[in-house]
Amino acid sequence: GENVEQHPSTLSVQEGDSAVIKCTYSDSASNYFPWYKQELGKRPQLIIDIRSNVGEKKDQRIAVTLNKTAKHFSLHITETQPEDSAVYFCAASRGARVGGSEKLVFGKGTKLTVNP
Amino acid sequence: KAGVTQTPRYLIKTRGQQVTLSCSPISGHRSVSWYQQTPGQGLQFLFEYFSETQRNKGNFPGRFSGRQFSNSRSEMNVSTLELGDSALYLCASSTTQGPLWFGPGTRLTVT
Predict the structure, then answer these.
(1) pLDDT tens digits along A41-70
(2) What span, in angstroms and rounded, lies between the C-alpha atoms of A104 and A21?
(3) pLDDT in tens, B13-63
(4) Could you tell me if B29 and B95 are in contact, meaning their C-beta atoms sit under 8 angstroms apart?
(5) Partner residue facing A100 (CB), from B50, B99, B102
(6) What is the average pLDDT across A83-101?
(7) Mean pLDDT to the nearest integer, B71-82
(8) Out of A43, A49, A109, whose CB is closest to B90?
(9) CA of B82 to nearest chain A CA: how many angstroms apart?
(10) The dihedral of CA B5, B75, B72, B56: what is its sign?
(11) How far B60 CA sits from the closest chain A CA (Å)?
(12) Looking at residue A54, what is its pLDDT?
């Protein structure tokens, strides 16, 4: 069945360093890949997403890269700040059909700690 | 616009009881999805509704059910609660081909 593997499960970096989280998906029909950030006790918040017709997308300090051949995508956070500390989830889906979104299959999450 | 809202935020139930959770999507969003979040299994898809029709369903037993109303509000029901149903239940809404926006969740504890 569909599966998304996410690594590492925990990541600790110093403030100002970069952080990279990697995900691999199994469903070759997947074509939509969002990333969510969840702070303790809060809802998952979308931070960036990418569709399969794009190899890379950037939004300020955050970037996502996609390798469809390898079925692999990654989140890159540069110049990390303490407020980046949270659990990050990657997800994959076959993409939104007309009229609604397909289900998301989530990775298990990466707990990122940014030390001041 | 107001975000996705869920009620109640916290719930304590006893094994064997049933529970109904409610979700109000972002105005204009017609798709509503439900996810279960637990420390062990992470985020798992329960079901998706659009225009009062269930479009997709995850691998959960029939004790889990849902529905969507004409105003896009959605409810999910869990019957004959088990200890393992203790979780954070997240509702998310979206527009056509849009990303999912999550609500704050309902924390269900089954004792």
Answers:
(1) 999 999 999 988 888 999 999 999 999 999
(2) 18
(3) 999 999 999 999 999 999 999 999 999 899 999 999 998 999 889 999 999
(4) yes
(5) B50
(6) 80
(7) 97
(8) A43
(9) 23
(10) positive
(11) 14
(12) 81
Chain A residues within an 8 Å CB radius of B98: 96, 101
Contact B102/B3 with Cβ under 8 angstroms? Answer: no
Residues 6+ positions from B95 with CB-CB distance below 8 Å: B28, B29, B30, B31
Q: Do B99 and A107 touch (CB under 8 A)?
A: no
Pairwise CA distance, residues B6 & B24, whole Å = 6
Give the separation between CA B18 and CA B36, rounded to whole angstroms: 16
Instruction: Say how far apart CA B31 and CA A101 lie, in whole Å.
Output: 7
Cβ atoms of residues B10 and B106 within 8 Å: yes
The token pair that represents B18 in the structure block: 């049933």
Residue of chain B whose alpha carbon sits nearest to that of A42: B104
Beta carbon pairs, A and B, within 8 Å: 70
Place of tokens 């924390």: B107
